[in-house]
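Structure first, sequence second, as always.
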């Protein structure tokens, strides 16, 4: 995937000190693939349409995201798909360049499959995060999120400190309270869509199933994520929604972050919302909807990640 730049000269190329970032670093890409996909996801346009993108990331022409800064990142991938008729289970594998990050399986041949993957990993400048699939599958929706977290990398090769020309650069202290980063992913998964008619009051979406939770976040019993540290966060919502004369909104406590754009059509659509916001300790991030006609939802995720 090409040579990675380093903060050191050639003798220190194995070191990877995390430099401080002057701005937030995050990217969210989505896409739809109406035909069976093989190899890189997508064959056509999956994971090519940016929902949110800062200057330190850019979209891969084959689907995925490149990062332009070293650091600890939350990598999250969610997808809904239908298996090829008579085909075997499908394994979707998440990579950073040639490094295996993890995988998820779509195995139900009779209905739509919904999968979620979330992991905190260390990435280097130039790394490409992408998804591979081992069999044919029709991806109805897919979303990939990469967000740089606040924290410093654990130095795992102390013997290299003895190198004379690296000794000064490599002496730094790890921030123990930040080493894992601060992030949370919650989901709501259903076999079929939940339907609502006209409502007089808004309803909080029941996002209570934890996919990834670090010590600085917790799940709200009402649905959503409570943060335990002040800072700048990426807030990302994604899911299948149908709303006729209805609204879907993202809140922090009583503060409106924004409304999720809905077409008002007659089919479930991929709804996405992403924004970088300042949160305080104790803030609750959640999604709610108000139906003035018909509102259906299925397979939702909410991500909150503290940025560097």
């Amino acid at each position: 995937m090409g040579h990675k730049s380093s903060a050191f000269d050639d003798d220190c190329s194995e070191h990877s000190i995390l430099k401080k970032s002057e701005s937030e670093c995050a990217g969210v890409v989505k896409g739809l693939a109406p035909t069976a996909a093989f190899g890189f996801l997508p064959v056509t346009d999956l994971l090519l349409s940016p929902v949110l993108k800062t200057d330190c990331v850019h979209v891969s022409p084959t689907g995925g995201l490149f990062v332009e800064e070293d650091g600890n990142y939350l990598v999250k991938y969610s997808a809904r798909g239908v298996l090829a008729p008579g085909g075997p289970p499908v394994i979707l594998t998440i990579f950073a360049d040639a490094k295996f990050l993890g995988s998820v399986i779509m195995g139900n041949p009779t209905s739509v499959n919904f999968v979620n993957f979330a992991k905190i990993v260390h990435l280097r400048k130039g790394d490409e995060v992408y998804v591979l699939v081992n069999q044919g599958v029709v991806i109805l929706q897919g979303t990939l999120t990469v967000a740089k977290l606040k924290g410093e990398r654990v130095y795992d090769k102390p013997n290299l400190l003895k190198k004379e020309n690296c000794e000064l650069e490599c002496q730094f202290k790890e921030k123990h309270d930040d080493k894992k980063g601060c992030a949370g992913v919650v989901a709501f998964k259903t076999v079929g869509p939940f339907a609502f008619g006209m409502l007089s009051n808004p309803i909080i979406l029941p996002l209570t199933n934890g996919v990834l939770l670090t010590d600085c976040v917790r799940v709200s019993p009402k649905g959503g994520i409570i943060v335990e540290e002040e800072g700048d966060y990426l807030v990302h919502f994604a899911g299948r929604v149908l709303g006729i004369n209805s609204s879907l909104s993202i809140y922090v406590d009583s503060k409106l972050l924004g409304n999720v754009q809905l077409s008002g059509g007659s089919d479930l659509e991929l709804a996405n919302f992403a924004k970088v916001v300042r949160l305080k300790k104790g803030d609750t991030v959640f999604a709610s909807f108000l139906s003035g006609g018909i509102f259906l939802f299925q397979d939702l995720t909410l991500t909150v990640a503290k940025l560097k």
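Margin note: Residues 159 and 217 are 35 Å apart (CA to CA).
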